[in-house]
Amino acid sequence: MKQPHQVHIQIDGREPQAIAVQGDETIASLLARLRGELSGADHEPELLAVFTDDEEEEVHHDRKVCECGPHGPKILHLHRCRKVAVTVFYNGTETRDFNPNATIRRVAEWAKKQFKVDEGRKWVLRLDSADGEILDSDARLGKLVNSPACKVALYLTERCMIQG
To answer: Do domains 5-79 and 84-158 have the same CATH topology?
Structure first.
Protein backbone atom coordinates (compact mmCIF):
# COMPACT_ATOMS: atom_id res chain seq x y z
CA MET A 1 0.00 0.00 0.00
CA LYS A 2 1.31 3.42 -0.94
CA GLN A 3 1.84 6.14 1.62
CA PRO A 4 -0.72 8.93 2.10
CA HIS A 5 0.16 12.28 0.55
CA GLN A 6 -1.26 15.80 0.27
CA VAL A 7 -3.38 16.86 -2.67
CA HIS A 8 -5.01 20.21 -3.24
CA ILE A 9 -8.66 19.99 -4.22
CA GLN A 10 -10.21 22.88 -6.14
CA ILE A 11 -14.00 22.67 -6.26
CA ASP A 12 -15.82 24.89 -8.75
CA GLY A 13 -14.78 28.53 -8.23
CA ARG A 14 -13.33 28.14 -4.74
CA GLU A 15 -9.72 28.36 -3.59
CA PRO A 16 -7.81 25.05 -3.46
CA GLN A 17 -7.96 23.19 -0.14
CA ALA A 18 -5.31 20.69 1.03
CA ILE A 19 -6.44 17.20 1.94
CA ALA A 20 -4.65 13.95 2.78
CA VAL A 21 -5.19 11.19 0.24
CA GLN A 22 -4.68 7.53 1.11
CA GLY A 23 -2.17 5.62 -1.01
CA ASP A 24 -4.51 3.49 -3.13
CA GLU A 25 -7.65 5.63 -2.87
CA THR A 26 -9.74 5.96 -6.03
CA ILE A 27 -11.24 9.21 -7.26
CA ALA A 28 -14.73 7.81 -6.46
CA SER A 29 -13.84 6.94 -2.86
CA LEU A 30 -12.13 10.32 -2.42
CA LEU A 31 -15.23 12.13 -3.69
CA ALA A 32 -17.48 10.10 -1.39
CA ARG A 33 -15.20 10.88 1.57
CA LEU A 34 -15.10 14.59 0.70
CA ARG A 35 -18.85 14.94 0.59
CA GLY A 36 -19.69 17.17 3.52
CA GLU A 37 -16.02 17.30 4.61
CA LEU A 38 -14.96 20.13 2.30
CA SER A 39 -16.93 23.27 1.61
CA GLY A 40 -18.53 22.97 -1.81
CA ALA A 41 -18.34 19.17 -1.89
CA ASP A 42 -21.88 18.66 -0.64
CA HIS A 43 -23.40 17.59 -3.96
CA GLU A 44 -23.53 14.17 -5.58
CA PRO A 45 -19.92 13.03 -6.17
CA GLU A 46 -20.74 11.22 -9.40
CA LEU A 47 -21.85 14.55 -10.93
CA LEU A 48 -18.40 16.10 -10.55
CA ALA A 49 -15.97 16.16 -13.46
CA VAL A 50 -12.39 15.60 -12.27
CA PHE A 51 -9.28 16.99 -13.98
CA THR A 52 -5.61 17.25 -13.08
CA ASP A 53 -3.40 20.21 -13.94
CA ASP A 54 -1.54 18.29 -16.62
CA GLU A 55 -4.19 16.22 -18.37
CA GLU A 56 -6.61 17.36 -21.04
CA GLU A 57 -9.00 14.46 -20.53
CA GLU A 58 -11.39 14.06 -17.63
CA VAL A 59 -10.14 11.61 -14.99
CA HIS A 60 -12.38 8.55 -14.60
CA HIS A 61 -13.74 8.04 -11.10
CA ASP A 62 -12.45 4.44 -10.92
CA ARG A 63 -8.84 5.62 -11.38
CA LYS A 64 -6.53 5.65 -8.36
CA VAL A 65 -5.49 9.14 -7.25
CA CYS A 66 -1.84 8.06 -7.09
CA GLU A 67 -1.98 7.18 -10.82
CA CYS A 68 -2.82 10.77 -11.80
CA GLY A 69 0.80 11.78 -12.37
CA PRO A 70 4.29 10.46 -11.57
CA HIS A 71 4.01 11.35 -7.86
CA GLY A 72 0.25 11.72 -7.71
CA PRO A 73 -1.50 14.93 -8.72
CA LYS A 74 -0.66 18.22 -7.06
CA ILE A 75 -4.12 19.61 -7.70
CA LEU A 76 -7.38 17.90 -8.57
CA HIS A 77 -9.93 20.19 -10.18
CA LEU A 78 -13.48 19.11 -9.34
CA HIS A 79 -16.24 20.85 -11.21
CA ARG A 80 -19.90 20.44 -12.04
CA CYS A 81 -19.14 21.92 -15.46
CA ARG A 82 -17.58 19.33 -17.75
CA LYS A 83 -16.99 22.04 -20.35
CA VAL A 84 -16.87 25.83 -20.15
CA ALA A 85 -18.23 27.81 -23.11
CA VAL A 86 -15.76 30.67 -23.53
CA THR A 87 -16.71 33.65 -25.68
CA VAL A 88 -13.90 36.09 -26.47
CA PHE A 89 -14.55 39.57 -27.85
CA TYR A 90 -12.11 41.55 -30.00
CA ASN A 91 -13.24 43.08 -33.29
CA GLY A 92 -15.79 40.28 -33.39
CA THR A 93 -16.60 37.21 -31.36
CA GLU A 94 -15.12 33.73 -31.11
CA THR A 95 -16.54 30.91 -28.97
CA ARG A 96 -15.08 27.57 -28.00
CA ASP A 97 -15.54 24.99 -25.25
CA PHE A 98 -12.64 24.36 -22.85
CA ASN A 99 -12.25 22.09 -19.85
CA PRO A 100 -12.54 23.85 -16.49
CA ASN A 101 -8.85 23.08 -15.75
CA ALA A 102 -7.69 25.08 -18.81
CA THR A 103 -5.53 28.08 -17.96
CA ILE A 104 -6.28 31.64 -19.00
CA ARG A 105 -2.92 31.51 -20.85
CA ARG A 106 -4.22 28.65 -23.01
CA VAL A 107 -7.44 30.52 -23.79
CA ALA A 108 -5.46 33.68 -24.62
CA GLU A 109 -3.18 31.76 -27.02
CA TRP A 110 -6.22 30.34 -28.78
CA ALA A 111 -7.89 33.78 -28.95
CA LYS A 112 -4.77 35.46 -30.36
CA LYS A 113 -4.67 32.89 -33.18
CA GLN A 114 -8.40 33.22 -33.87
CA PHE A 115 -8.22 37.00 -34.15
CA LYS A 116 -4.82 36.99 -35.91
CA VAL A 117 -3.42 39.72 -33.66
CA ASP A 118 0.17 40.98 -33.69
CA GLU A 119 2.10 38.41 -31.63
CA GLY A 120 4.82 41.02 -30.95
CA ARG A 121 2.47 42.95 -28.65
CA LYS A 122 1.40 42.07 -25.11
CA TRP A 123 -2.17 40.75 -24.92
CA VAL A 124 -4.35 39.98 -21.91
CA LEU A 125 -7.80 38.61 -21.26
CA ARG A 126 -10.19 40.69 -19.20
CA LEU A 127 -13.35 39.73 -17.39
CA ASP A 128 -16.73 41.43 -17.99
CA SER A 129 -15.55 44.27 -20.29
CA ALA A 130 -12.66 45.64 -22.34
CA ASP A 131 -11.53 47.63 -19.31
CA GLY A 132 -12.40 44.95 -16.75
CA GLU A 133 -10.12 43.02 -14.44
CA ILE A 134 -6.99 41.57 -16.08
CA LEU A 135 -7.01 37.84 -15.49
CA ASP A 136 -3.97 36.00 -14.16
CA SER A 137 -2.63 33.85 -17.00
CA ASP A 138 -2.10 30.91 -14.62
CA ALA A 139 -5.69 31.00 -13.29
CA ARG A 140 -8.04 28.18 -14.27
CA LEU A 141 -11.33 28.73 -16.10
CA GLY A 142 -13.16 26.74 -13.43
CA LYS A 143 -12.59 29.57 -10.96
CA LEU A 144 -14.62 31.91 -13.18
CA VAL A 145 -17.78 29.85 -13.71
CA ASN A 146 -20.48 28.09 -11.76
CA SER A 147 -22.93 25.41 -12.75
CA PRO A 148 -25.38 25.32 -14.42
CA ALA A 149 -24.35 28.30 -16.63
CA CYS A 150 -20.83 26.98 -17.40
CA LYS A 151 -19.97 29.94 -19.61
CA VAL A 152 -17.84 33.07 -19.44
CA ALA A 153 -17.32 36.17 -21.59
CA LEU A 154 -13.75 37.48 -21.89
CA TYR A 155 -12.22 40.42 -23.71
CA LEU A 156 -8.89 40.28 -25.53
CA THR A 157 -7.07 43.61 -25.16
CA GLU A 158 -3.57 44.93 -25.43
CA ARG A 159 -1.86 45.31 -22.11
CA CYS A 160 -1.38 49.05 -21.67
CA MET A 161 1.67 50.17 -19.78
CA ILE A 162 0.91 53.56 -18.27
CA GLN A 163 3.98 55.73 -18.02
CA GLY A 164 4.17 59.11 -16.58
So the answer is: yes
CA atoms of 109 and 104, how far apart (whole Å): 9
The rounded distance, in Å, linking the Cα atoms of 139 and 83 is 16
**Pick from 57, 79, 66: which is nearest to 143 by CA?**
79
pLDDT digits (tens, 9 = 90+) for 79-133: 889 999 999 999 999 999 999 999 999 999 999 999 999 988 999 999 999 999 9
- Identify the CATH number of the domain defined by range 84-158: 3.10.20.90
Each domain of the chain, given as residue ranges in start order, spans 5-79, 84-158
Measured CA to CA, the distance from residue 23 to residue 10 in angstroms comes to 20
**Beta strands at 49-52 and 151-158: parallel, antiparallel or unpaired:** unpaired
Q: 5-79, what's its fold? A: Ubiquitin-like (UB roll) (3.10.20)
Determine the Cα–Cα distance for residues 103 and 13; give it in Å rounded to an integer. 13
